[in-house]
Amino acid sequence: MDIQPIKTEQDYENALERIAVLMDAKADTPEGDELDVLTTLVEAFEARHHPVYPPDPVDAILFRIEQMGLGRKDLEACLGGRGRVSEILNRKRGLSLEMIRRLHKELKIPLESLFSKVA
Known about the structure:
Structural class: mainly alpha
CATH architecture of the largest domain: Orthogonal Bundle
Number of helices: 7
Number of strands: 0
CATH class of the largest domain: Mainly Alpha
Mean pLDDT: 92
Helix content: 55-70%
């Protein structure tokens, strides 16, 4: 096992290729150990150079209602009347803490997706 730090995009690509080869390696074998070390290095590189940020709260809401086959009217129970839903979805009003709680409870939207721009 000759593992080097991942410093460049090319190192990153090489590590991903090697991970693909080792994907079916059994645990507690030299190949399994190599896979563990490489995935840890790749995760650290990705966290530094390719961070994934939570979506905008409105995008998260729209995505979730589309997934569930719901419409804007279905948001009224969580957000208030039609006008309030429109203001929020048009980004003219932020989400209150109570709205966030209801969206999380009723639509199972992750809290971290709803808290990025709290009013």
